[in-house]
Amino acid sequence: MTETIPGPKGLPVIGNILDIDPVDAVQCLGRIAKEYGEIYKLSVGGTAKLFVSSRNLVNELSDESRFTKQVSGPLAQLRNVCADSLFTAHSDEHNWHITHKILMPAFGPLAIRDMFDEMHDIASQQVTKWARFGPKEAIDVSSDFTRLTLDAIALCSMSTRFNSFYRDEMNPFVGSMLEVLAESGKRAVRPPFVNDYIMRGSLKNYNHQIAVMKEIASEILEERRANPGYQKKDLLTAMINGRDPKTGEGLSDESILNNMIVFLIAGHETTSALLSFYFYYLLTRPDVFEKAQAEVDEVIGRGPVTLEHMSKLPYIEAGLRETLRLHPTAPVITFHTRPDLNIEKTTIGGGRFEVSRGQGVVALLVEMQRDPAVWGDDADEFKPERMTEEKFNALPANSWKPFGNGIRGCIGRSFAWQESLLILAMLLQNFNFRLRDPDYQLVIKQTLTIKPGNMFMYATLRDHVT
Length: 466
Ligand code: HEM
Hints:
Blueprint: H1 25-36, E1 39-44, E2 47-52, H2 55-61, E3 67-69, H3 73-82, H4 94-103, H5 109-114, H6 116-133, E4 139-140, H7 141-158, H8 172-189, H9 192-198, H10 200-225, H11 235-241, H12 253-266, H13 269-284, H14 286-299, H15 314-326, E5 332-337, E6 345-348, E7 353-356, E8 361-364, H16 365-368, H17 372-375, H18 389-393, H19 413-430, E9 431-435, E10 443-446, E11 450-453, E12 456-461
Helix pairs in contact: 3-8, 6-7, 6-19, 7-13, 8-10, 10-12, 13-14, 13-15, 14-15
Bound molecules: protoporphyrin IX containing FE.
């Protein structure tokens, strides 16, 4: 006999919609987990979903012979923008397999190393901007990291300069993307008839913002098509020329466009938020700041930051891992039983909880990565020491999953890592920082990702007198 899975009682028709504030859904879901425990049930958008927050349950769900990624909730809504792209495809969709095969080498370690100079170019723009600002100009931390990561992914993946550091307003892609992500979140919890027939004003704006994003990506692709002799090997070239090694099949223009949009979405907000959260700890924990800066001084000194330095910053790297443990910037991943198994139901939790065919099981990463059974009573504390290479490699399987699961895990992980290490090394080498509001309390803002809100700081050039 399986157990009844608890959860707040919903209302007829609308289910638990009132239990989740779409503007703050991740934190709402976390609060419900505190009340109901490691697994609970909610009826959202017309279907009953399970929400899990212990490492043991997530470990079981990570078994790819039984479960796979489910594209549901906000992600399913994102298919309105990028259809069967790498990020939004169902695992059994044909296009996912071709795109994955074609893009894996283009995201491999060698290819990412080749992107170092372009990442350095964009990172230098941020350093220059902050140096010119001087110590009295308040910096909106998340906003500038968004400029950095958007420009880096656009340059490295499609050789396009968005020049965000040279404009007051960011590229229109960002505004449209933020609106689309926010609306996708809201659409996910509303019943479909409300989305399509009642909220007509929101629908019109949603479609308009999607069109803006597609237009920006189309212009880039058309320009590249107009220059067939273009030599540089970036992700766009890989998508245009790449063929499935077995079948010889390539990607259609529509698929290329969908994936360009995905790189721009998935490739910047998550990394920008990682850097912003890490900065929260640099700004509020003098011990962390001192150790991180001392590491940069010792390893790099005053000379140029090079590719070779990237593997020599263990303390900063541990801090990044610990940041993603406490604040997984893509905060949920959703599983369901593999459709090809053709089973009506299965169980998790040693036979205790039933999961029926097609039922979404959402892993709440913020809670799961603070599971006291793995991390102890101080799980909520930021302690880079617990994430040294040695300790990290010895962690129980699937207790740290900010990059998702298995074959559907993040393809851009090495990109994000190199980019983050590089910018942190350059910033710590050149500046000291202090919060604008010394009493700042961490506020978490959410779209599809989470990031710190309203965090401002001052950056002062170091005099390098040691
Ligand atoms: C998938 C997190 C950076 C591109 C994912 C998933 C997570 C994730 C959790 C799985 C999503 C799911 O199961 O629904 C992160 C984090 C990042 C980051 C925390 C930075 C700190 C990047 C970058 C890129 C990227 C820089 C592109 C350059 C993708 C793509 C997928 C993905 C295309 C879908 C892969 C597939 O399903 O085959 N990411 N990501 N991500 N990410 Fe990232």
